[in-house]
Amino acid sequence: MTNPTHAGRARQALRQATTASHQRVDDLFTHFTLSDVRSYASFLRAHARALVPLEAVARPDASRLALLAEDLAALGEVLPPSLDINGAEGEGFRWGALYALEGSRLGGAVLARRVGSDLPHAYLSAVHDKGGWIAFQERLDAAADDGDADWMNQAVRGAEAAFGLFEAAARAEMAAGNG
Fold first, then answer.
1. What is the C-alpha to C-alpha distance for residues 177 and 165, in angstroms, rounded to an integer?
2. How many CA atoms lie within 13 A of 10 on its CB side?
3. Whether the predicted pLDDT of 80 surpasses 90
4. Sorting pLDDT into bands at 50, 70 and 90, what band is 4?
5. 3-state helix, strand, coil in the chain (%, to 5)
């Protein structure tokens, strides 16, 4: 078992390396009003555009794509065409993308409270089980420890690619006048 005082080393390094990208994504998604059905549907479509390729690369233990599709269907929407992910090479890249996806579950818990009470919110409500975030950090640290010299660089590229997909998806929805 990982020493709890050191758990999260890789997450901390990824967080530090991706702070600007993460902030851009957070800033863009504040333009969506989650209590408004049209804006919320656009928010979900943006997430779907990024989630499809990211889950294919990151292979999370608990996929949220079915929940997202369920929420979209409840709003009379279908999954939109997904974006392409570039440079998805190496185990570190996969873990970096997974870091962004698992971290988004934390934000989803906060956002779920902003969703209108009459709107579906299974996707945003799919949070970690108790201790799940710590367990993920421990697995991330173990993967980093087992990785080669380029592992962390790959992980940063994976996390940056994930944030880049969410950013591009949000911008596409906003450009279509849906944000």
1. 19
2. 31
3. yes
4. very low
5. 65, 0, 35
Q: Residue 37's CB: how many other CB atoms inside 10 A?
A: 14
Sign of CA dihedral 85, 77, 65, 159: positive
Q: Which domains does the chain have, with CATH numbers?
A: 32-175 (1.20.910.10)
Q: How far does Cα 36 stand from its chain's mean position?
A: 22
Of 173, 179, 158, residue with least CA distance to 10 = 158
Answer yes or no: are the C-beta atoms of 155 and 17 closer than 8 Å.
Answer: no
CB 126 within 8 A of CB 109: no
CA angle 40, 46, 49 (to 5 degrees): 145
pLDDT band at 7 (very low <50, low <70, confident <90, very high): low
Confidence at 147, pLDDT banded by 50, 70, 90: very high
pLDDT digits 0-9 by tens, 55-74 = 999 999 999 999 999 999 99
Q: Cα(60)–Cα(43) distance, rounded to whole angstroms?
A: 21
